[in-house]
Amino acid sequence: MKRILVILIIFLILFLLITFQNYSLSQERAILPPFDWPISNPQEQGLNPNIFESANKVAETLPYIYSFLVVKNGFLISECYFNSKNKNDAYYIASASKSYLSALIGIALREKYLVSLDQKMMDFFPEHITPQMDQRKFDINIKHLLTMTTGFPFDSTDSHWEKWYSSPSMIKFAIDLQLYADPGERWAYSTSSTHILSGIITKATGMSAYKFANQYLFDPLNISIRYWGRDPEGYYRGGWDMHFTPRDMARFGLLYLNKGQINGLQIIPKDWVEESLQDYCPTYFDWGPIKESKYGYLWWLGKILDYNVYYANGHGGQIILVIPDLDMVIVTTTDANNSFEVGWKQNLETLRFIVNYVLSPIRGMMGSPPFSPSDIAAFKVANHGLAYQEYLSVIQWQPNHRNNTVNILKYKIYHMVGVNRYCLAEVDANTYEFWHRRVEKNKEYTYAISSVTAENKESGVTLISVKDPIY
Asked: Which CATH class is domain 378-466?
């Protein structure tokens, strides 16, 4: 009996030790009380409240969206949660974590833990140097890792992650990846690179990335990271697996909008914020509604409707979007439990939701436009190769005069080429009844709009063709 009791006590002690160890891996200090956001409403901040009411109704119909928040002029003006979520829930933000890592590198430079961005990757990991190592890897520096120009291949695939996760040393696995270009020559999205940065922070500071982040970023910002996973060697995962509440994500976006300062405290050096938001990508590309997409220090850059924006972007639609021209931060969290292919599609859907239901109306498509319609940005018409430009302009269209008694649910916008009719967009009449698209073809502008009934039947087409654009 005594022997059994001793064995049970030993097992209990082992269980408690393992439980404590697992807890300490993910939680090294108590969660801070949540930041008390100043609350306002769209109208008080100069915006039409109908925009956000419509956006929230649409978001409620999207099965993958968990939260949608908008901060304007430092005030939380809209906040909604969906799919049984609430403001106290923390979410896996996937690769949006990378932008936090960028901030940590800037702070490490300020605190003299790092000397410069020219420091070489392999100087921090001499234990992983091998005689057969590609000599170009000795040229990879911190700036290459920050800008994803290391020469490592694009690694966001399900098969890559399966191999990476099963390796005993994720740092070594990343360093050993075969280069497909010389360092600094080409850009390729590489989470392997950002995980190496987490290892560099640990090596340079002598403390875990988690502890360093709490001391210099999260605590001063009054936010709490709810969970941050580790690799098999104990390094905190660099560039993914952080968990935050949406309000704390918005707080981080506001920090960058304010050039690294909150309530008079310069948490991140102003120069670092500005340097981080420069373009270091050798090529430009359009990605969904993001035009002239570029890359800074682990921040995405681009233009939406002629607004310069930057954003942290995570798999499936974890987004912190900053629009300086509007003094605005938009946050979304979503279901990220899907493949890379599904995740990228969901990212685009989430961005399109933000653009179509928030930024487009603000840009001047509803009510009194704050900008001249002629200044509204151009979208490229990709479908059918119809026209080289597609502009947005404010035109007050009435329901089709041929069938004005039917219940009009939506409009279809067409581009007319001879007798051929090509649908460019299908939009909800209640949301966008005051906007229309025009296309330019051989200096002639051709418009067509068709109303669509509840039975999805078209009630006729109203057509106009003019030599000069209508605004």
From this structure: mainly beta
| Measured distance CA(465)–CA(309) in Å, rounded | 35
Res 3: pLDDT: 54
For residue 36, CA distances in Å to 223, 328, 329, 403 come to 11, 18, 17, 52
**Domain spans of the chain, in order of start:** 43-363, 378-466
Prediction pTM value:
0.74
Distances (CA, A) of 297 to 35, 301, 359: 27, 10, 25
Q: Which residue has the tokens 């089709």?
A: 400
CA pair distance 364, 38, nearest whole angstrom: 27
- pLDDT value at 385 more than 90: no
Any residues with CB less than 8 A from the CB of 173 and at least 6 apart, and which? Answer: 163, 164, 167, 192
Q: How far is CA 247 from CA 148, 238, 244, 326, in A?
A: 28, 22, 8, 19
What's the average model confidence in pLDDT over 322-349? 91
Where does 299-419 show beta strands of DSSP type E? 300-304, 307-314, 318-323, 328-334, 390-394, 408-417
Helix axes 97-110, 191-205, angle to 10 degrees: 30
Buried b (16+ CB within 10 A) or exposed e, 395-406: bebebbeeeeeb
Q: What are 207-227's pLDDT values in tens digits?
A: 999 999 999 999 999 999 999
Q: Per residue in 154-205, pLDDT tens?
A: 887 777 888 988 899 999 999 999 999 999 999 999 999 999 999 999 999 9
Per-residue pLDDT tens over the stretch 93-123: 999 999 999 999 999 999 999 999 999 999 9
Burial class (CB in 10 A: 0-12, 13-18, 19+), 449: buried
Q: Which two tokens stand for residue 295?
A: 């890359």
43-363 CATH choice from 1.10.10.10, 2.40.128.600, 3.40.710.10, 3.50.50.60: 3.40.710.10
In sequence order, which ranges of 266-338 are alpha helices (DSSP H)?
A: 270-276
Q: Say how many C-beta atoms besides its own lie within 10 A of residue 367's C-beta.
A: 14
Residue type at position 10 = I
